[in-house]
Amino acid sequence: MSSFLQSFLNPKKNFLARMHMKAVSTRLRRYGLRYDDTYDQYYHMDIKEALNRLPREVVDARNQRLKRAMDLSMKHEYLPEDLQALQTPFRSYLQEMLALVERERKEREALGALPLYQRTLP
């Protein structure tokens, strides 16, 4: 069943998945974002931990992309066409670190160790 689901969601095999990926890519290019920029660090603590482990330059570039996207959105504008062509919305920078953090968390849970972080309310 899972292989069927994976083939259904694979853009190379499914026309609808390919259309969805193209639509998401277009929307991300308009604002100069990458797909990993859409992950919210306040939604899941693993994402926050993964962002903390990334190099400072990568996090700074992410913050700059988010600021630029918010600025363009508030102005009801898009990036110029020449800059949109240079964007790489599906180049991942967070997935590998996020997978590592999730694997470490699951290993700690399996061993019965205390969690690395607790969710706290501000």
From TrEMBL:
UniProt-listed InterPro entries: QCR7 (IPR003197), QCR7_sf (IPR036544)
Location in or out of the cell: Mitochondrion inner membrane
GO biological process per UniProt: mitochondrial electron transport, ubiquinol to cytochrome c
Membrane topology (UniProt): Peripheral membrane protein
Gene Ontology CC annotations of this record: mitochondrial inner membrane; respiratory chain complex III
UniProt-listed Gene3D superfamilies: Cytochrome b-c1 complex subunit 7
Domain of life the protein comes from: Eukaryota
Alphabetical keyword list: Electron transport, Membrane, Mitochondrion, Mitochondrion inner membrane, Respiratory chain, Transport
Keyword Transport recorded: yes
Job description of the protein: Component of the ubiquinol-cytochrome c oxidoreductase, a multisubunit transmembrane complex that is part of the mitochondrial electron transport chain which drives oxidative phosphorylation.
Quaternary structure, from the entry: Component of the ubiquinol-cytochrome c oxidoreductase (cytochrome b-c1 complex, complex III, CIII), a multisubunit enzyme composed of 10 subunits. The complex is composed of 3 respiratory subunits cytochrome b (MT-CYB), cytochrome c1 (CYC1-1 or CYC1-2) and Rieske protein (UCR1-1 or UCR1-2), 2 core protein subunits MPPalpha1 (or MPPalpha2) and MPPB, and 5 low-molecular weight protein subunits QCR7-1 (or QCR7-2), UCRQ-1 (or UCRQ-2), QCR9, UCRY and probably QCR6-1 (or QCR6-2).
Family the entry assigns: Belongs to the UQCRB/QCR7 family.
Protein name per UniProt: Cytochrome b-c1 complex subunit 7
